[in-house]
Design a protein that fits this description.
The complex is a heterotrimer of chains A (548), B (296) and C (310). With 548 residues, chain A is of the alpha+beta class. Chain A is built from 17 helices and 26 strands. With 296 residues, chain B is mainly alpha-helical. Chain B is built from 13 helices and no strands. In chain B, helix 4 packs antiparallel against helix 5, helix 4 packs across helix 10 and helix 6 packs antiparallel against helix 7. Chain B starts with 6 loop residues before the first helix and ends with a helix. Chain C has 13 helices and no strands. Chain C starts with a helix and ends with a helix. The longest helix of chain C has 38 residues. Helices cover 79% and strands 0% of the residues of chain C. The chains are: A alpha+beta (548), B mainly alpha (296), C mainly alpha (310). Chains A and B meet through helix 8, helix 10, helix 12 and strand 19 of A and loops of B.
Chain lengths: 548, 296, 310
């Protein structure tokens, strides 16, 4: 590593960052990730401790159990995956050096690195990989997101010490890309056996950092893994990290978190509120890094189980009356981008043609509602059969990413077409949405690497599935179902993209949803910190980080 | 202190007259006049916001977000482009409802419980005080938090949460007062000349025991708005078209560095209201309380 | 009644209070709508059996009285159960986080007594003078400013702009300064009022009049006799409000990103994590009872009348 020309390294990483922001940044606004330092030409300094303030606390550091993005930001440092997804969407080696897919697309054979060991000394091999994947499908593990990512996994066969064959129930175009997601990190079998249920508090992996301690609501500490020598292609430093230690502090209150970077109490903090971005940009002591997340954007879902939202005209009226541009500009002050599709830009099959496809048209919206026999009453609210047209807008608490404020604006905008919006903010999203489906409009987003994520949300659900939990849309469309099924199985990328473009157009045309914004993950850091980069999904990487 | 008995004062049956309020114009009285005017103005705002507010509180001028106080918008505009002054004026009614309703409910129930317990004493007192003690061991805001989490956000639920959590405090104070007053010489004297019990209760016990409750209530008006604000901070607040002061304050806190006016003005409204009510409450206490009154 | 008997009596009634509050909290949480099981598993992968099994595993399918008696039996054996959210044992969790909260509570209480008594006494001595009005306004600001707001202001001023004190964390005395100021200010507001009022009452009491008549200097009257009597309500208020102070940490710990049980219990209430809520309430009830016991005992040192009554 010492021979590497660092000017080149920096320029490559700069280019990578630009690429990253470029592919996510369709409107071409100035992206602040380009503001990372370009003055550093010297060798990165070894040692030091990075303090990094997180907005929320992880629930567990067990990648197979946690589904929270914030947990992923931490355990990304501790665990490695078989493969990594590069910024251009291609799958590249990591713990697996090469792989092949069977003719029928139902089995994958991976050759593994033979020089890797876990932090606790356990050797990394095919047995460990099999152990990890079998653990995910074991109901006792109570896996959530990891399980849905691993599906349709059936079993693994250890062919040789460093060769493993993975069998699937059906072909899956998303499988390799899913293997790169941090929830499918490989865990140490000895540590899992040792800690059992408490593995999430004592995580052991093969990553660039070793877990040290977790003091709840205070900090999570990880230290350099000096043996590390198997960095993936999306970091420059394939060897051991420059930092000695990272200390993740949990600072939930926005003002406090940003204040702690400005006062120098921490070196970096995540999730900068839009209103603070301008002042941080002008602060000579701090830098701002931004990367758009990939997956499903923040989207408002109609509950099609409810009248009149089961009618496409009613949904279209709302679609035409909500001025998303105004919402995004007002609340996010130009720091978030508006989204147009059920998918975010940068994901396979994203349909760019949808951009600009929906325009505010109050007259047309009014006309559509008139056609449904909903007449405006004396107070301006539409009435049919003596019942006022109300829209039960449910949102979760706390006010994450100003989502509650979106509801407040939508309330005013829909008043114009005679819809009375009732806003219900709940702590208990699980029972209001997923158990009782007691909403007309509800917003959500998801970080994901593959468009197959659409299937879980938009595919028709069986009564058995609905009995467990209610789907977000409550809709059913045979044509859409077919498209989503084809998308899962189609292995030809070009064909697959076409399928998903059709699906996206269908969802927007029938006004199933109102996409609002693409969430940019932001990090404010002191100018002394160099080399924070992000993976394809927008998770921070610390392999290249050094402190001046 | 019981040993020193001044027969003249303790045997005097306290009476109270409203004419006592009319005194000369000292510094204190000027304050009371100001406080009274502020309270009246706030009540007017709550009753007739349309006449006072310069703009509609829900109108969002998205071209004018986060403008600092200026001649068109005296208190500036918030992150939606709403006029903060109009929001504060319209927000007064819900704030007053939260404050007054929770103090009335909590004070009345707590006062009655305390009065009954203190008056009857013996076994009733023991049981009631045990229950109150149990309630006191659970911090009020935790109780409020649990109630708000259980019933969901809503104006009346916040009132209920705050009221329930304040009951033990009122009950305890009322009980203490009643116990001490019922042993006073003038009560015993009154009883010895054959005054019926209910007359003693209404004429001597209640009027002489409610002043600490009044002080508590005037503070309570403010605290209940603040507890509502705290619930809003913890994500259990109400999102209404026209937020109350506590919610405005909590929702605007993230903008302190870029728009201090969004949360400062609703905060000042709470302070001014609590301040005025307390000044009036102190005056009432001084006027009605037999102990301080005699020093005039 | 000897001191020992008194303490024993207090302890036994305290025990009743703790059991009572335990039952009360258990019933409130039990009645809360929402299913803890659903917050524990990802709905996108749950099957009905998984939900049913989990419910059974946690004993949530049992009727209320069985759930409670089982819980209470376990508590008596020192087992506070484990969090339903992440199956962590509750007792070590509370023991780990309690000291930070206790430290914050005690410094805030001390700060509010110091500020409250100082201004309260000044206010009473210079009644209706400007100093009185200023002290009372300071007090009213204390009780009319939400702690999260004063907390953020303190961070912006002392941590971000002046860079004198840390705004986050819970290690070292420096991190205690801003949060206890923010929390103590509230208590100070109440104490200023109480001390002022009781000082005024005491000043008019016969024994003070007598002392004055005996020719004792005004200063001696005020500080040796009046203040001593006025301290009682201040200490009572602190005793009664210790619960509120503990509860205030719910907000303050979030604002200042401190460790502590306040944050734990807030999260637990949202997640319906019954064992954790129970455990915290149990502990705060104990603290409440102990502090009030100390308050009761301290009366006899401050107030000779109480001592004589014993």
């Amino acid at each position: 590593m010492k021979l590497v020309n660092w000017t080149k390294v920096i320029s490559i990483s700069m280019a990578l960052l630009l690429l990253l922001s470029g592919c996510a940044n369709s409107t071409g606004t100035k992206n602040s990730s380009a503001e990372t330092k370009d003055k550093v030409e010297a060798q990165p300094k070894q040692g030091g401790e990075l303090t990094f303030a997180l907005a929320t606390s992880p629930d567990s550091l067990d990648p197979h159990r946690s589904g929270l993005a914030v947990a992923g930001r931490v355990f990304r440092t501790i665990f490695d995956n078989l493969v990594i997804q590069a910024e251009d969407g291609t799958i590249q080696p990591w713990l697996a050096t090469e792989w092949s897919v069977s003719e029928d697309g139902k089995s994958y054979t991976f050759k593994l690195r033979d020089d890797v060991k876990f932090h606790d000394g356990t050797p990394f091999n095919a047995v460990a990989v099999k152990f990890s994947f079998d653990r995910i499908i074991d109901p006792k593990t109570k896996s959530g997101n990891a399980l849905s990512l691993l599906r349709p996994y059936v079993s693994s066969e250890v062919l040789e010490e460093y060769t493993i064959k993975i069998n699937l129930a059906t072909p899956s175009a998303a499988f390799l890309s899913n293997l790169s997601q941090n929830q499918l990190g490989i865990v140490s079998p000895t540590a899992v056996e040792k800690y059992g249920d408490q593995f999430g508090k004592n995580p052991v992996g093969t990553g660039p950092f070793k877990f040290v301690s977790w003091t709840e609501n205070a900090d999570i500490q990880v230290e350099k893994n000096s043996d590390y020598n198997w960095g993936p292609s999306n970091v420059e430093n394939k060897g051991k990290p420059y930092l000695d230690k990272i200390s993740f502090k949990i600072v939930p209150e926005e003002a406090t978190r940003i204040g702690s970077v400005q006062s120098g109490q921490v070196l970096a903090a995540e999730t900068v509120p839009p209103q603070n971005i301008a002042s941080l940009k002008n602060d000579p002591k701090t830098q701002l890094l931004t990367v758009n997340t990939i997956g499903l954007p923040y989207t408002l879902f109609f509950n099609q189980r409810k009248e009149p939202w089961n009618n496409v005209k009613a949904r279209q009226a709302v679609q035409l009356a909500i001025d998303v541009d105004s919402i995004v500009k007002t609340l996010y002050l130009g720091t978030y981008e508006r989204s147009w599709s059920p998918l975010t830009p940068g994901i396979v099959g994203y349909d760019k043609s949808l951009e600009g496809s929906v325009k505010v048209d109050i007259d047309k919206a009014n006309k559509l509602l008139d056609e449904l026999g909903l007449q405006k009453g004396s107070d301006g609210i539409r009435v049919k059969d003596g019942k006022q047209l109300t829209l039960n807008y449910v949102d979760g608490s706390p006010n994450r990413e100003k989502r509650n404020d979106i509801a407040v604006i939508v309330q005013q905008q829909l008043k114009k077409i005679g819809i009375k919006v009732e806003i219900n903010i709940t702590k208990d999203v699980a029972s209001v949405i997923y158990t009782n489906a007691d909403y007309d409009l509800y917003g959500n987003s998801q970080v994901n690497s593959d468009p197959n994520a659409l299937r879980a949300i938009y595919h028709t659900r069986t009564p058995e599935e609905e009995a467990v939990f209610k789907g977000l849309t409550g809709g059913s469309d045979t044509e859409l179902d077919q498209l989503l099924e084809q998308g899962t199985a189609e292995l030809d990328t070009a064909k697959r993209e076409e399928i998903y473009k059709k699906a996206q157009q269908k969802i927007i045309k029938d006004a199933w949803i109102i996409p609002i914004y693409v969430f940019p993950y932001t990090v404010a850091a002191s100018n002394t910190v160099n080399g924070i980069t992000f993976d394809a999904l927008g998770y921070p990487l610390f392999n290249d980080v050094s402190i001046e | 202190m019981k040993e020193v008995v001044n027969t003249k004062t303790v045997l005097q049956v306290p009476k109270w007259k409203f004419t006592k309020l009319k005194t000369n114009f000292s510094v204190e009285n000027r304050f009371i006049l100001g406080a009274g005017m502020i309270v009246i103005f706030i009540i007017l705002c709550a009753l007739f916001p349309k006449w006072i507010a310069p703009y509609s509180p829900t109108y969002m001028d998205t071209s004018l977000i986060l403008s600092p106080p200026n001649s068109a918008h005296w208190f500036g505009t918030d992150y939606f482009g709403r006029d903060v002054l109009s929001l504060v004026i319209y927000g007064s009614s819900d704030s007053l409802i939260i404050g007054i309703a929770s103090v009335l409910i909590g004070g009345l129930i707590g006062g009655i419980i305390g009065a009954v317990s203190g008056y009857f004493g013996s076994i009733i007192d023991v049981i009631v005080m045990r229950v109150i003690e149990i309630l006191m061991t659970i911090p009020g805001i935790l109780l409020a938090l649990a109630i708000a989490a259980a019933l969901g956000p809503g104006l009346m639920n916040i009132v209920l949460a705050v009221a329930v959590s304040s009951i033990p405090g009122y009950a305890r104070v009322m009980r203490g007062q009643l116990m001490s007053i019922k042993k006073r010489k003038y009560v015993e004297a009154s009883r010895s000349i054959g005054t019926p019990e209910w007359r003693i209760f209404l004429l001597h016990l209640l009027p002489n025991s409610w002043s600490p409750l009044l002080v508590m209530a005037t503070i309570g008006l403010g605290t209940s708005i603040l507890i509502g604000s705290g619930l809003s901070f913890l994500g259990l607040g109400i999102i209404k078209e026209i937020p109350d002061w506590g919610a405005l304050l909590s929702q605007g806190r993230g903008y302190l560095t870029v728009g201090w006016w969004i949360s400062t003005f609703p905060g000042l409204a709470i302070t001014l209201f609590v301040l005025s009510v307390n000044i009036i409450g102190d005056k009432l206490r001084d006027t009605f309380d037999p102990k301080t009154r005699k020093t005039r | 009644m000897t001191i020992v008997n008194k303490v024993l009596l207090k302890i036994s009634t305290a025990f009743v209070s703790i059991i009572g509050s335990s039952i009360l909290v258990f019933s409130i949480i039990y009645l809360l709508p929402g299913d803890p099981v659903l917050s524990m598993i990802d709905p996108s992968v749950a099957t009905p059996e998984m939900v049913a099994n989990l419910r059974k595993e946690l004993g949530l399918d049992q009727p209320f009285y069985i759930q409670f008696s089982e819980y209470f039996m376990n508590v008596l054996q020192g087992d506070f159960g484990q969090s339903v959210v992440n199956s962590e044992p509750v007792l070590p969790k509370i023991v780990e986080h309690f000291p930070a909260t206790l430290a914050l509570t005690i410094t805030s209480a001390a700060l509010s007594v110091v500020i409250g008594v100082t201004f309260g006494v000044l206010s009473a001595i210079y009644r209706n003078k400007w100093i009185d009005i200023i002290a009372r306004i300071i007090g009213l600001f204390g009780i009319s400013m939400p702690t999260f707001w004063s907390g953020i202001l303190l961070i912006l001023i002392f941590s971000v702009f002046l860079n004198w004190l840390p705004g986050i964390g819970s290690d070292g005395w420096k991190t205690l300064v801003l949060p206890s100021l923010s929390l103590g200010f509230v208590g100070a507001g109440f104490i200023i009022r109480m001390v002022r009022n009781s000082m005024l009452d005491v000043i008019n009491e016969q024994f003070i009049v007598t002392l004055r008549a005996k020719g004792l200097s005004e200063r001696a009257v005020m500080y040796r006799h009046a203040l001593r009597n006025a301290l009682i309500p201040a200490i009572t208020i602190i005793g009664l409000n210790i619960g509120e102070l503990l509860a205030g940490t719910v907000v303050i710990e979030t604002v200042f990103s401190r460790q502590g049980i306040g944050r734990i219990v807030a999260d637990a209430i949202m997640a319906k994590d019954l064992p954790v809520i129970q455990g915290v309430v149990f502990f705060s009830a104990i603290v409440y009872v102990v502090i009030n016991l100390l308050v009761d005992l301290s009366y006899s040192f401050i107030d000779p009348r109480v001592r004589r009554a014993n």
